[in-house]
Design goal:
Layout lengths: L1 H17 L13 E7 L9 E6 L4 E2 L2 H5 L13 E3 L2 E6 L4 E5 L6 E6 L5 E6 L4 E6 L3 E6 L5 E6 L7 E4 L2 E6 L2 E6 L9 E2 L13 E2 L5 E6 L3 E8 L4 E9 L13 E3 L2 E2 L2 E2 L3 E3 L5 E13 L2 E12 L5 E6 L8 E4 L5 E5 L7 E7 L5 E8 L1 E6 L12
Antiparallel strand pairs: 1-2, 1-31, 2-3, 4-5, 5-6, 6-7, 8-9, 9-10, 10-11, 12-13, 13-14, 14-15, 16-17, 17-18, 18-19, 20-24, 21-22, 23-24, 24-25, 25-26, 27-28, 28-29, 29-30
Length: 381
């Protein structure tokens, strides 16, 4: 009897553990629709990329699966498609992993030591730069995978965009710009009139070729529209927060931006049309006896009318770490649950209020849609 009980307990334990095992590789012929970049817990080598296929199936750590159980690295920050490959910077592993987009096998590893790469932007047909925590830009060849140079600059840069043969980047509240053929500290300029840019949001190039940056303050967010040709701020559109003691405060009032770990978790994205900007705000859900009940809402901003309106209410989501808007305008959020280094979820919030959840990796941070796998051009999303 004891042996039978032991055997049952062993089988139960094995089945419970198997839920945490990696999903087997999908059958050949499936098309990857989305990729989720998972940071992983710093120092533990748990960075990963999860793949969601067009039939809804998924693999949460595809790189480890197809590369003989080799981990991706530590910490996975972002993903870029350039010249037929994915480039994934891992800032705590001091490297950029180059990955085949069909098989997800490693093409090569670009050592960035000393360096902590975070985001990558193509600047021409054969070169790209990686932003870095160490006040530098790492320029490398996207075909030979060789480091060209590490360019010291006065500040660190996060998200970047290229347009009109110029490189724009976020730098501690400001937007800086370089000419593509002169990416040097001496060639860096600053866009006047902007000092509140949030470094957690994308820089968006709209359908008219204008550049948009997201600014964040304690009492409002601001959408900055920049002419990349003249390098001038065209306009700033403010979205004010409503104080809880204001006369008009009530259900639907904008309270603030997403906030966690003492840091704004602002995100901004666009869709295929590049006519709208999407970003997440906290609003008043209700006023109860014990205080204000909050909810998170994705807003859309029309670049033509300059009007902002609620787009999706994120029911049941209290914290988010990443946001992505699909080419069709669907809303996807990265849910890190309670931030205790457990695997999180990709949540799709549909227009009818339903939520579709996919189990992904530890600390999901970025969503990439494979429809944007296009050749290098002078304008990058």
């Amino acid at each position: 009897m004891k042996k039978i009980l032991f055997l049952l307990l062993f089988v139960a334990a094995f089945m419970a553990c198997s839920d945490d095992d990696n999903t087997p590789q999908p059958e050949p012929g499936k098309k990857a629709k989305m990729i989720v970049v998972n940071e992983g817990l710093m120092g533990k080598g748990l960075g990963s990329i999860s793949v969601i296929y067009d039939d809804g199936s998924s693999v949460y750590d595809i790189f480890r699966d197809v590369n003989n159980n080799r981990p991706l690295g530590d910490v996975a920050q972002s993903i870029s498609y350039i010249n037929g490959n994915y480039f994934v910077p891992l800032n705590n592993s001091n490297k950029i992993e180059v990955i085949d987009p069909e098989t997800f096998k490693s093409v090569t590893t670009i050592k960035a030591d000393p360096g902590s790469p975070r985001y990558i932007q193509a600047i021409n047909e054969t070169e790209a730069v990686a932003s870095d925590l160490n006040n530098q830009l790492i320029k490398f060849n996207t075909q030979t995978f060789e480091i060209i140079e590490a360019i010291a600059i006065p500040t660190s840069i996060e998200h970047m965009a290229t347009i009109n043969n110029k490189l724009f980047g976020q730098a501690k509240g400001k937007i800086v710009v370089f000419d593509i053929n002169n990416i040097k500290a001496t060639g860096m300029r600053t866009i006047e009139g902007i000092d509140n840019v949030a470094n957690t949001t994308n820089l968006i190039v709209d359908k008219n070729g204008m550049l948009w940056a997201y600014g964040s303050e304690t009492d409002k967010v601001t959408l900055h529209c920049i002419n990349p040709t003249t390098e001038e701020l065209l306009n700033s559109y403010e979205i004010p927060f409503t104080p809880s003691d204001a006369e008009d405060f009530g259900e639907g009032s904008i309270i603030g931006a997403p906030f966690s770990w003492g840091t704004d978790l602002n995100r901004m994205d666009t869709d295929r049309t590049k006519e709208k900007l999407y970003f997440c705000l906290k609003t008043c859900k209700a006023i109860a006896w014990d205080g204000v009940k909050e909810q998170m809402v994705v807003y859309s901003f029309d670049i033509n009318t300059h009007e902002y309106t609620p787009y999706r209410t994120l029911l049941g989501l209290n914290e988010m770490y990443g946001m992505g808007i699909s080419p069709d305008g669907d809303v996807f959020l990265c849910d890190c649950l309670d931030y205790t280094a457990q695997r999180g979820y990709l949540r799709e919030f549909k227009a009818d209020g339903t939520v579709v959840s996919t189990y992904v990796g530890v600390y999901p941070t970025m969503i990439y849609f494979t429809e944007y796998n296009t050749p290098v051009t002078s304008t990058q999303k």
